[in-house]
Each structure stands twice: as structure tokens, then as C-alpha cells.
Amino acid sequence: MRLVELSVTNFRSLGDVQGIPIHKQTILTGHNDCGKTATLDAIAFLLGERPLADSDISQFAESEPARAALPSDEDAAEPIAVTVEGRFDLSDAEKKALGLTSSIQVRRRHVEGEGVSLEWLTQVPQNPALRNISSLKAPELRSLASDVGVKLREGQPNVKASWTEVLEEHAASAPTVAGWAQAPEHVVSALPQLLYFRGDAAETPDTVVRSILTAKLREYTLREETRQKITDLETDFSGLLKDDAARLQKLVEDRCGFDSFSLEPTVQFRPTVSGVSMTAAAPGQRAVSLAATGRPVPPDFAGALGGQPAASVGSSGGRRHRRCDHRL
């Protein structure tokens, strides 16, 4: 998945910003506090890379699309919704896996008093009451079934699971419209991962990349065939340490005057990416190590790591812009 368009509502200074195009390379420029870093943090929120803080909610947020210069007492009674929506292009493999023929729209919303949800734009039942069947309690399910004329089949027990089953079957055959629904797990897992290089952060770009690759490496260690190999190695090395542990145990007993002392080491292998070598080359120039460039990235740089080349977004603020010697 590759992010190609972004819309933000009620996130910091971004009160209602629609249709920000995201290209392979996108530069955000403007004066301080105009929303450049807020845009990058909004992308991080969309992709689930950062929680929403109280300070992220716009001080002038309103629940209605129309916005006034200052909030009114009437608006304050309405729940505030923070929404970050993205449109993603899909590779052919992703279209096949997700059962789609075009791009996909995903949004993450925080509604005051309701929490955060990740939704995708898909076909949903025209009747809004049929869109959230799995979250309803048994009495609500029975009431809904009565409203839409659905009954249990002969022999089905009068329990929540039965009502959920018949109502979901009814919803599957009901008329549909395009609408937002909770994103299924296969959509959640397909979201790209964010690489966020902040110019004011202590972490260097290679540290960020190394942490991302280490996380992916550890995912591979959870595979059954890999897990067994690691378990065998842990057992072998535990055996090698057995005699050393016994000598150390006896030494502690003798020196400290204990009646008994036990020592049982646990060996655990946690694979890690120990280093990353990164180079970059401008058109017609030789590749240069990023470690030797002084400042390898702009003040803020974010890239989404997904199943295909992803967009990168950089920001530069103020009238005096920092120079980027190597464009990424």
C-alpha cells in the first residue's frame, strides 16, 4: 500500500484540510507552526504508529463541517471528532489479497467519549442498524431482529450467537451503500509501516531503520519452523553452560556460607539487526554513505514502509530553510 492522498480534521492546527496529494517525494514548506510537523504526526496517527495525545486535539475543533473563528458554547456540547483519512494505491498482489480492483480509503478517528477506531470505506448495509451487529448485546439483537423481520431457524437456541448469525446473514443479502465500517484484520495488517526521521530527535536514520528491520526480523522468528531452530539452539547452549553454572553455584555456596544456593541460567536468543549501511547517490554522482553527509535527511522526513515503494514526506519551515545535501 502506498499513501497517495491525505485529509485531516481537528488535528492540532489542521482544522479541516482535505486532499493533500502525497507523491513519491513531497515537500511541505511554510512558516513555523503552520502544520508541517502536524501533518507528519497525523500520518503517524493514521498508520497506528503513535497514540493521540490531548494536545493533538484542535483547540477550535467542532463536530460540524462548518467552522467559526472561535468555538461557541453550543459547539462545546457536541463530541469532538479527530479524523485522519488516507487514500492508498495498491499493488496487483494487494488488490488480489484484499479483493479490490482500485485504491483503498482508510481513516482513523478519535471521537470524544468513544475512543479511537480504524475504518475503511466499503459497501455496508443501507440500514445503519445492520452495520454493527457484532457489537450488540443479546436483547439488542432480538429487538433488531424483530424490527427487520428476522427469526431464528428451527432448532436454533435462543442465544446471542444464534441471533448474531441470522442477522449477519440478513445483512449480507440486504441492499448496500458505500460507507465507513470497522477495518478487518487483513486491512489493518496491510497498512504500511512508518519510518519517521526527525531532525530534532536523538535517533539517527540508521538507528530508526535498524529498529524497523529488527522488528520484522523478530516476526520471522515466530514462524513455527524458525522457532524450533531457535529452541534447539537455546537448549544446546543451556547444556554448554551447565558445568559453568554448577561451578559458579558451588563457589557462591563456599564463599557466602549458604546451606544451599541454586543457579539455573535461562538462554534466550533474540535476533537483532546489528547494523545498517545506507548510501545515497544524486543523479550522475557516486554513492555516498549517509553517515558521512553531515545531515543525511531534511529536518523532518517520513516514509511509509509497505509492500511497494512508498511516498516520502519532508518538511522545511520558516523563511530560512536548511539545506539538504542529498535528496532522498
Structural commentary:
The protein has 328 residues and is α+β, with helices and mostly antiparallel strands. Helices cover 30% and strands 25% of the residues. It has helices spanning 36-46, 73-76, 92-98, 138-148, 160-173, 185-188, 205-220, 224-256; strands spanning 2-11, 14-21, 25-30, 81-89, 104-111, 115-125, 176-182, 193-198, 279-280, 288-289, 300-305, 312-317. Strands 2-1-4-5-6-7 form a six-stranded antiparallel beta sheet, covered by helices on one side. Strands 3-12-11-8 form a four-stranded mixed beta sheet, sandwiched between helices. It is extended, with a radius of gyration of 27 Å. The two termini are 19 Å apart. Mean pLDDT is 82; it is low at 63-69 and 318-328.
The Cα radius of gyration reads 27 Å
Q: Can you summarize the main beta sheet?
A: 6 strands, antiparallel
Which structural class matches the secondary elements? Answer: alpha+beta
Distance between the termini: 19 Å
β content, as a range?
15-25%
Please provide the count of β strands: 12
List SSEs in N-to-C order: EEEHHEHEEHHEHEHHEEEE
Q: So what's the overall shape?
A: extended
Mean pLDDT: 82
Sheet with most strands: strand arrangement: 2-1-4-5-6-7
Helix content: 25-40%
Extract low-pLDDT stretches: 63-69, 318-328
SS summary, helix count:
8
What is the element layout, followed by pairings?
Elements (H helix, E strand, L loop, with lengths): L1 E10 L2 E8 L3 E6 L5 H11 L26 H4 L4 E9 L2 H7 L5 E8 L3 E11 L12 H11 L11 H14 L2 E7 L2 H4 L4 E6 L6 H16 L3 H33 L22 E2 L7 E2 L10 E6 L6 E6 L11
Parallel strand pairs: 3-12
Antiparallel strand pairs: 1-2, 1-4, 4-5, 5-6, 6-7, 8-11, 9-10, 11-12
Helix pairs in contact: 4-5
